[in-house]
Records
---
Amino acid sequence: MAKTNKSVTKRLTITRTGKILRRKGGKNHFQAKKSRSAQLNKKGVTAFVNAGKEFTSRYAPHI
């Protein structure tokens, strides 16, 4: 069995229904040059769409 990649587990959240959520990138700095709509579009979390079954089984916390 492979080791769990801890950097990935810290960046992703798995909901009770099994969806994988991730934070949108590009929010740490360089915000002054972006338009307000581009800044607001980065707000919140989004679903991790390309997460297959093997990805879920590998990185899901085993509870």
---
Amino acid sequence: MGCLLLNVLADCKKNHPTFVIHHERQVHPMEYSAAHRLANEIRQSEEYTTYHRLKEDVMADETQAALIREYKKLQVQLQMAAMSGQQPDSEDMQRFSGISALLFGKPEISQYLLAEMRLQQALADIFKIITDAADLDMQLPV
């Protein structure tokens, strides 16, 4: 019986490659062409093109790039501490404040970081639309 079932599944996959066999029923795979069109639209958006142009300019300077990487690393550490209910490390807070002041004090870096935030917000909005359509609750527990 097991060999017969394997032969039937193999034959079905060969003759109907667009179907996925799942627990003895045929299911159409999800269509991804709309997602690829959306990815294309994102790459052509003003938010994306502005962000990548500014990123290229800012990250060309290795000192600026290193400061931005440190800023983002500290930002994540502080956010993780806050989300886990821990008190953020005071040294990290001071370091983050100092780097933030330095970075946002330079107009080209400030423009880059703001462009990055705008792109992140647009992507978050898109993600919310998609998860709402799928009726998924993606909220973090409070």
---
Amino acid sequence: MKKIFVKKDLDKIAQVLETDYKFKGNNYRFVIENKENNQHLSLEIYPDIPIGEQTGNLISIYTTNSHLQLHFCTGYVVSEILGEVTFVGECGNRLSGLIIEKNGGCSLYANVDNRLLSGDFTQLGPEVMLSGIALSLAEHILPEKDEPQTEP
């Protein structure tokens, strides 16, 4: 399995989020503070750790009001233009994404059908459209699917 989070990846993430990171034993911790909006967010990346009986990457977010985790992160995409990093995890034809913004914002989209990423967004209801648009940035890092996908 290819290592996803090596030094160059951590440096790239830190650059886009405009923060530094520190190694904390088994994870890398990034702290984002937005004093203007009084927002504080901590991002922890646990590369290749035991998760149950398997090994994988864990992304953990702590904010003032919440704690979010993405187990078995399979990749990430940085967007300098948007100032955000999208972490993704796949399970079958479903995708979950955790998006961290340099201003301290955070969004989670879970169990999104992969077909929504490349479909016609105008045909989706507004409550579904946002997840497809947000996660479509990660479409190019997803493996090609050879077999037909089944309906849920």
